[in-house]
Amino acid sequence: QVQLVESGGGLVQAGDSLRLSCAASGRTFSNYAMGWFRQAPGKEREFVAAITWNDGNTDYTDSVKGRFTISRDNAKNTVYLQMNSLKPEDTAVYYCAANLFSLRRIPEKYDYWGQGTQVTVSS
Fold first, then answer.
1. Which of these, 103, 108, 45, lies nearest to 72 by C-alpha position?
2. 79-105 in b/e burial notation, b at 16+ Cβ within 10 A?
């Protein structure tokens, strides 16, 4: 069993920064890829960023590239999403997820999900 718990969301102004955290427990994550997704009201869940536990290889969707940074702390079993230069269009519930194999972008390919944390960016 794998449990993922997100934290760090909140209400910020455009241009501000937030760091989301995803604490993992249960199984080891050494052979997993971890991803961040987001879902706004009325929208499909979309890929944001992903990272592999073993070598730190990363992937980002175009809309956040250069603004967001995904990282992991293996000792703490925690994945982070550093979000800089936030825009109102970044407003969504952010979810962390884990899959067994690779840097996937499709939500259905992920095996485990956290409960989500709300990020709201005002103009």
1. 103
2. bbbebeebeeebbbbbbbbbbeeebbb
The sign of the torsion formed by the CA atoms of 43, 115, 22, 77 equals: negative
Strand pairing report for 10-13 and 117-122: parallel
Helix (H) / strand (E) element for 104: namely none
pLDDT digit string, tens, across residues 73-111: 988 999 999 999 999 999 999 999 998 888 889 999 999
Residue 4 identity = L
CA dist 18 and 11 (Å) reads 9
> Do residues 99 and 30 make contact, with C-beta atoms less than 8 angstroms apart?
no
